[in-house]
Write a structure and sequence with these properties.
With 155 residues, the protein is an alpha/beta fold. 19% of the residues lie in helices and 27% in strands. The longest helix has 15 residues.
């Protein structure tokens, strides 16, 4: 599934298009992915330069179903996920052709979903993990987790 998670004031041809894809989200966790993606998009739009251009950015969430929850860690857990994201130290990256799968989804989005001639500017891979890491591989791909902040309320 694909969902626009920012306002669609302008077409994707006129706007900067960001796609958020999830890794390590099983079929039962797709609602969680959409919530996490929405939270990530709102967070991105609070920072420069996105903040100043928020009216000219379309952010789409693209669902990808993983067989197992979580992601792989080098020397540790080995999860069967859609994009095969693996963490080395504090950096996440694709393994086993995960980047090709992401590029195929991007191409499908550009050809069949976005306005004719529109391009995906950047893909953000949101990892279903409790770890603390992130990485920007190049201008097309970046990785992160959703940071959940908990508050203690007095009884």
């Amino acid at each position: 599934g694909k969902a626009l998670i920012t306002s669609d004031i302008f077409t994707s041809l006129e706007n900067f298009v960001i796609v958020i894809m999830g890794d390590g989200y099983t079929a039962d966790e797709q609602d969680k992915f959409l919530q996490d993606a929405k939270q990530k998009a709102q967070g991105m739009l609070r920072w420069s330069p996105y903040k100043e251009y928020s009216d000219h950015i379309n952010i789409y969430a693209v669902q990808a179903v993983s067989n197992e929850s979580g992601i792989s860690v080098y020397g540790g857990k080995n999860a069967d996920t859609y994009f095969h994201v693996k963490v080395y130290g504090k950096a996440a990256s694709f393994s086993n052709g995960g980047d090709e799968k992401a590029k195929e989804l991007r191409q499908d989005l550009e050809q069949n979903y976005l306005d004719r001639g529109a391009n995906v500017a950047t893909i953000h891979v949101l990892c279903n993990s409790e770890g603390s890491y992130g990485a920007s591989v190049n201008s097309l791909f970046s990785f992160s987790i959703v940071r959940i902040t908990s508050r203690a309320f007095p009884e």
